[in-house]
Write a structure and sequence with these properties.
heterodimer, A: 259 residues, mainly alpha, elongated, B: 305 residues, 13 helices
Chain lengths: 259, 305
């Protein structure tokens, strides 16, 4: 998927935006009426499904990675600060986490997207906001554990500055569980981006996305099942492989950090 | 214990206030709410009179005060599009969402717990492996795609089941399966790992030593203790299901809160949007409050100081 996304402009057979009404809703090549020009068929305005799936991978991957980086780093840093400094800082930050978790994130995302209008940048910002809280929780919990260890007390006794201790001695010891959280957040956000685009409030329809293709294809389900089905399979397989990676990472790092 | 309940209640009220405030702030995120709602086809006089009618011309703090004052009575104002009080609309749609959520919850509990227990008891067997890879797979299926595929197979190709609307038991089947799949997989995995933890404890060895039958050890001694983390997650899932049925309800044209929310957002009906968001958070917070308080009944060891 990564390779496909990176090299999309070179590997996709035809221009994903090329409209050709004459060949609209052509079935995949292995079916009756299919054509070898469009291996996976065409959609309602004759755009090539395979090319659009390949290009759609870029959006999914970009949005997924960008949101996990933004939301993950933001949440982890807050969690680190909460766990390290304790006191009122911790109380404030953890209340924010509670508030964030009380929102069904997709609901909030849809509401904000509808108000600010569809664009790739907005999707990234909105989904990052929906992502940070679990990172913050895990980072705080891990920091609390690490700070009870003797080497932290030793570092404090040596008179090292707080930031040095946090960066040099705490961060390396809490990073593994956060990577596991990140892999599951990546899977979730790939689905969330697709959901937003499916509902028509995500990435603008001019850019091919898996969710958008599914949403458009849904209206042609009775006559052209492939338009909705195939991008969904791409989506599912990507999310499945990210989840497998997450499971594997969790087994490697720590079998005890929960779902 | 009483102090703990009071503290949790206070916390719940605080979270609700915060969510309501965010919902209120959403209104002004895009500048002028009056222009946003009735669009550009109107003259500026018409927009101005609409602004006045809705009270958007008043100072922000006054509007905020009014908004907060209405909350305890469930007063979110009147829907701009339908001219019906927001709360009436929500209560009208809520039974449908409740029905769907209850059906999904039924599926989740009665499928995920037996599978999780079985997987833990027969650890690393073929059944365990199949169940757990199945669960990981089910967790990876996007809800809306699953819904569309169920419609395609059972509605369009086989013509066995109705694919939209609410009515008979058959109408309920596909949306409930769609809504339940993700949580079922997630909870089955949690039940398994939680059971494995418990099965390694001393009291299980004692129970075995006493010569208790296996089913009694698994279902009475182990499962009860293994359920605590499961109930936490279940609480979060119920809240999520109620608030997040957005996609399932949209795909199946199910007349519940989720669909109402999307319609409100698409129609830019701001009072209704504020209402459904706050209401969703209310349900979520209440469910989790009940879950937290129920721990001490399930496990008497957890008595809060």
């Amino acid at each position: 998927m990564l390779l496909l996304a990176l090299f999309a402009p070179w590997v996709s057979p035809v221009d994903p935006g090329a409209i050709d009404i004459r060949t609209r809703l052509t079935p995949p090549s292995w079916m009756d009426g299919g054509s070898s020009d469009h291996v996976l068929g065409t959609d309602n305005v004759g755009r090539d499904v395979l090319s659009r799936i390949i290009h759609g991978a870029r959006v999914s991957l970009f949005v997924g990675v960008a949101t996990v980086l933004l939301g993950g780093i933001f949440g982890s840093v807050l969690g680190l600060i909460a766990g390290y400094f304790r006191g009122w800082v911790e109380t404030v930050i953890m209340r924010l986490v509670d508030i964030q978790l009380a929102f069904p994130s997709i609901l909030l995302a849809v509401a904000i997207m509808a108000l600010v209008g569809p664009s790739m940048m907005n999707v990234v910002i909105v989904l990052s906001i929906a992502t940070w809280a679990p990172f913050c929780r895990v980072a705080r919990g891990q920091t609390l554990q690490v700070c009870n260890q003797e080497y932290i007390t030793a570092a404090e006794a040596l008179g090292l500055r707080d930031w040095t201790i946090m960066w040099r001695h705490v961060v390396p010891n809490i990073i593994n569980p956060l990577i596991v959280v990140a892999s599951f957040a990546l899977a979730t956000n790939i689905i969330n981006e697709a959901s937003l685009s499916f509902l028509g409030v995500g990435v603008p329809p001019s850019t091919p996305t898996w969710g958008g293709m599914l949403g458009e294809g849904r209206n042609y389900l009775r006559i052209a099942w492939w338009v909705s089905t195939l991008p969904g399979i791409a989506l599912m397989l990507s999310v499945y492989s990210v989840n497998m990676l997450g499971d594997w990472l969790r087994d490697v790092y720590d079998p005890r950090i929960g779902d | 214990m009483l102090k703990y309940v009071a503290k949790r209640l206070l916390m719940a009220v605080f979270i609700l206030w915060a969510v309501a405030t965010i919902a209120f702030a959403l209104t002004f995120l895009s500048g002028d709410p009056a222009t946003l709602m009735i669009g550009d086809h109107w003259t500026s006089e018409q927009i101005a009179s609409f602004r006045e009618a809705m009270g958007y011309d008043r100072p922000l703090l006054v509007q905020y005060g009014d908004f907060l004052a209405g909350l305890p009575q469930g007063d979110f104002g009147v829907s701009v599009r339908q001219q019906i009080p927001v709360m009436d609309l929500i209560l009208q749609r809520f039974p449908a969402t409740l029905e769907l959520t209850a059906a999904a919850l039924f599926l989740i509990v009665f499928i995920s717990i037996p599978i999780g227990v079985l997987s833990a008891v027969k650890r690393n067997s073929l059944a365990d492996r199949v169940a757990m890879s199945g669960a990981l797979f089910a967790q990876s299926v996007p809800t809306f795609w699953l819904g569309i595929m169920l419609i395609l197979v059972f509605g369009v190709w086989l013509r066995w089941l109705p694919v939209s609307g609410r009515g008979t038991f058959l109408h309920l089947l596909l949306p409930a399966i769609t809504l339940a799949t993700f949580s079922t997989a997630r909870i089955a995995r949690l039940v398994r790992s939680s059971m494995l933890d418990v099965l390694g404890q001393d009291y299980i060895r004692t129970a075995r030593a006493k010569g208790l039958p296996n089913w009694r050890i698994y279902y009475v001694h182990a499962l009860r203790n293994a359920l605590i983390p499961v109930i936490t997650l279940l609480g979060l899932e119920i809240g999520g299901l109620l608030g997040g049925a957005l996609i399932t309800e949209t795909v199946f044209a199910w007349p519940g809160i989720g669909r109402l929310t999307l319609q409100a957002i698409q129609a830019r009906d701001l009072p209704l949007v504020q209402g459904v968001i706050t209401f969703g958070a209310l349900v979520f917070v209440l469910v989790n409050l009940v879950v937290d308080l129920s721990y001490s009944f399930i496990d008497p060891r957890i008595r809060h100081e």
